[in-house]
Amino acid sequence: CYPVLVKNKKKRIGLEWLYSTRCPRCRNTAEVLSMTYMRIYEASKIPKREVLVIDDMEIPKKIVQGDDKMSQIALEIYKVIKAEGPISHKELIAKLNLDVRPEEITRAINDRLESPGFIKEVGETPIVIEFKCSNRDCPMRRGVKRLDKEDIDKLQRLNEITPFYFFPKKKLSYGSRRFLTQRPGTESIDKLFTSRNKIALSVLGREIKNLKVEKNIKDTLLLCFAAILEHVCKMERPNKKGWGVKNYIVHPIFLEQNVLHVFKNRFNAIMKGKEEANREIGDFFQESENPGDLINDKANVCFLNEDARNLPIDDCSVDYVFTDPEYGDSIQYYELSQLGASWLGLENDWKNEIVVNPKQGKATDIYRDMLCEAFKEIYRVLKPDKYMTVTFHSREIKYWNALMYAIQVTGFRYVTAVYQIPQREYTNWIYAKNPGEMTGDIYVTFYKPKVKPLPHVKGININRIVSDIILPKARQIILLHNGQATFNQLVRGITLSLIDKGLMHNSKVRDLNYIKIFDEHFERLTRRAKIWRLKREERVSPLDFVPLDRRIEWIAFSVFNKKRQQGENVTIDDILSAIFTLLKNSKTPENREILQIIRDIAKPVRGEKRPFWEYMGERQLTLGFFPIDTYALKISSAEELDHSRVIRVVSQFGKDFGYDVWIGEPEIRKNPELKKYRNMEKLVIPGLDKLILERLKNIDIIWLQRKAVPVSLIEVEHTTNLREGLLRMANVFDAIPHLRIETFVILPDKRQKKLSEVLQEPSIKTLLSKRVVYYAPYSLIAELMDEREYRHLSFDDFRSICNVLQPGLE
User: Which of 500, 558, 706, 760 is most enclosed, with most CB atoms within 10 A?
Assistant: First the structure.
């Protein structure tokens, strides 16, 4: 038994009584596991000057003035609440004649009616109890029941009881200003809990703090206590787990869970975690509170609760930094942490929080300056030539730019970036209809140079940056995404290019109005949509890029080939890991692009252990954004266009390597536009007879020195017979055995199986025994094409990355 206050008088109650009820079947005592509540609303009084009279009913002007879907839903909800007086959420739903999703009704109530004060909550009514009967012989050991008179009487008594021990009453506000992450009915911590759960938590918290045990045991119990708070407050919803939103909100239907039951379950989970940690880590764990002990090998872990702008770490002593800074105003960590901090008696130093929060007096410029201070410290402690990875996610480009500015202005140099979608989203893709928009993180890696670069020159030609960097990159991204790109896709790629060129330090670059630039130079799909395409009069060759959907398809084919050879099923993780390893920077796709392509070539199958994808066959692609007649290209299919694109890319590789380039006559006849990508009008090789020269003219691509000495023969085998291409090169080898010529075969990822079959033929085996022949799938060529944007790719690099053909290739 524990003391409580009943009308300010001290009395004692038993904890078992708090959560007791009667089994409806055997009438024995049962334990309340949870109770579902429903909120009750009524219309607030609105000043006359702020209302309009419609059908003899006063309606707030702000509701009537809205013309979007949410405003229309809010208007219908308000009419019902106004007409019916105090009404429960369930009754409200029954009287609404709306064909909308339940979450849309909840949003309209919270955002359009409660937040502005048009309606208010006047109570909450219990609906059902989930219970566990104490009678082992009862046929209904666990079930759900409606409240009986005894349950209702107990709730009335509980509402008259307040805890005797500590429970927080802290206001969720900065002085007179409420937290950003807050809705009506959540003005202070105590309002987030029912009377019964406040009593149970106050008793449980006191018992833990009064235990005479070692500190690590008490800390673990307090961790367990803090971990259950989000589950035992009014923010918990039926069939939902934990904190589902980034603010304090009590939903129209909420769950009151048994504190002691939830604590026991969480305690058991923590115990299993402790046992696993002890088993896996054992004596290896050597903790110290001094970071110097790690550097001197006296310890191997150190947890610091310190200001990132004042690190207690020596200069140039850290090997690697991984940091996950706050994303502008996207999550208010200080505000959300008050739920746990208030119960544990902790005070958070919100004044030093690096965040965008107008109620803390922190705008974007203050956030940026605080980030600069933090990254200066990281730069100080990191060793030269060592790396830092920063993860970031925000749809607000101003916060992204503020972060990149803070990193580069301190002296870090950009290395690479990868966009990673969250696992919790893509694990449900296999049966999802609408996978949604970009929600993942960008991981950007930087390094600290040995010599800190000189301060950047302040004078910068912003017009040249727009014309020479931003617009070409934007065009490339638009073309990459089949002719239209979103604001997120455009700005992500442009920002990474500016970082790579060391330009994010400048305030003029950092604060560019991208929407204005895009509207001026491109065509917006609709007035409201943040999606742009090239202007109709602008013509770009379809050979100048390989669109993202083709790249994704090539990689997917590669994964299916590999797994098929290994006799394994292909999971969504297999495909995604390959895609996000190979496609980087602005080439990184979003989830809907990946899923659409996967669905076109494979179908989901429910396996015994986990779902997987089964290859169906290649889809029939159209040329999409590029109508054939616009370019007068004699191309009958997207596959032939891919063939020409790869020839164009590999030809450019040869020029980059310092060679002259010949493109075969058959390819020029099929696609005359390829002619501009070779720099030789005639193929003239001294010492060769006319027959051999004619054979060489039919090779897809030849790289030559001084336009006379062939160094590489390259066949791009898209739909042609693989055997014929290899034998054609073999005939050339026999005629010019004195020349050392590198030979490459480039083919679609889906044809690798056919290649392995051809390699078993005797004539091909003979060829491979005499010469080294390399091969590369299309997906590898696309990857190398991207690599060239950020580093110099040499011929040796190209050769080392390609695969060597062997007769036993699988």
Answer: 558
